[in-house]
From TrEMBL:
Keywords: Membrane, Transmembrane, Transmembrane helix. PANTHER family: ISOAMYL ACETATE-HYDROLYZING ESTERASE 1, ISOAMYL ACETATE-HYDROLYZING ESTERASE 1 HOMOLOG. The keyword Repressor does not apply. Residues 16-208 form the SGNH hydrolase-type esterase domain. This is SGNH hydrolase-type esterase domain-containing protein. The chain crosses the membrane at residues 282-305. It comes from Pelagomonas calceolata.
Length: 316
């Protein structure tokens, strides 16, 4: 294969870091699967969700997960979604006090900011108590305590802290907690009314809800998939008689965009700091949260990210 072809580095990378809400995002109707589909042939999505984890344990993984890639390459996007386990009652092993949660999450976000062009912080969903107790009884039978170990109220406090951390570091915020509570039938998003729902993890409807909100947010952050080049042409664009020549021609036409896709132009984040206006909320559908600068160079589109994303909050 001619060395002029870009190889696998022509694709961006996306890292999803979280607990089981992220791990389960690759279910057939999952929000992470929808993200991978959205960026198909443009970016590779790495699901690093760890069921049962809190920020205390995740903080130990973050340095390796968000180690600076060689040659200054940057991930296109990183999502950070924790709090559902931290927010359980103090008698549960996964509980993390609110102040420690804030410190842990801040450390994780700072590390993600160093290697990702855009970081989206997500808040834990509300909890449907009756479904949670029914699940507890199914799982433990006579040993079930009958005590709700999680609640919407407490999850909301952890969500508020996550929002504060996002704002402090110039990250976008997908406030799953508040977005769901706006819906009168939100319990169905966490499994209420389903045979195996547990009142916390996302049902198929909940997965689609999160996917819809996240995919609506991304273009406002300068991450519209149409701004990214395909790493290789469609099959119908390949010359069957001269495949190597047509592949080289595709790369020549899109060289700048492909390099921007993969981050090979180099990204030096420097010290993580909030963007101008990062402390102020922006309404859904408002001012774009960031943009790629499109220029024409040698007759091709050169895509380069010229500024960090401004914070976008999906909250009342």
């Amino acid at each position: 294969m001619p060395t002029a072809l870009p190889g696998v580095l022509a694709r961006s990378t996306i890292v999803l870091f979280g607990d089981s809400l992220t791990q389960r995002g690759f279910e057939p109707e999952g929000w992470a699967a929808a993200l991978a589909h959205y960026y198909g042939r443009r970016a590779d999505v790495y699901n690093r969700g760890y069921g049962g984890y809190n920020t205390r344990w995740a903080r130990e993984l973050a340095p390796a997960l968000f180690a600076r890639p060689p040659q200054g390459q940057a991930h296109l996007l990183a999502t950070v979604w924790f709090g559902a386990n931290d927010a359980c009652i103090s008698t549960e092993r996964a509980h993390v006090p609110l102040l420690e949660f804030e410190a842990n999450l801040e450390t994780i976000v700072q590390q993600a900011r160093q290697v990702a062009r855009v970081v989206v912080v997500m808040t834990p969903p509300p909890v449907h108590g009756p479904s949670r107790l029914a699940y507890q009884k199914r799982k433990y039978g006579a040993r079930a305590t009958g005590v709700e170990e999680r609640s919407t109220e407490v999850a909301g406090r952890y969500g508020d802290v996550a929002a504060r951390v996002a704002g402090r570091h110039g990250c976008a915020l997908l406030d799953v907690h508040q977005l769901m509570l706006r819906e009168a039938d939100w319990p169905r998003y966490v499994g209420a009314g389903t045979e195996d729902g547990d009142g916390l993890h996302l049902s198929g409807a909940g997965q689609r809800f999160v996917a819809e909100k996240l995919l609506a947010l991304l273009p406002t952050l300068g991450l519209d998939r149409d701004a990214l080049a395909y790493d290789a042409p469609w099959g119908f664009e390949v010359d069957a008689n001269e495949p190597a020549a047509s592949l080289r021609a595709h790369f020549a036409r899109h060289r700048g965009a492909l390099q921007a896709n993969s981050g090979v132009l180099g990204v030096d984040r420097g010290e993580s700091r909030p963007l101008p206006g990062a402390g102020e909320p922006y309404s859904y559908g408002g001012v774009p949260a960031g943009a790629f600068l499109l220029g024409v160079a040698c007759g091709v589109v050169l895509l380069a990210l010229t500024r960090r994303p401004r914070r976008v909050r999906f909250r009342n």
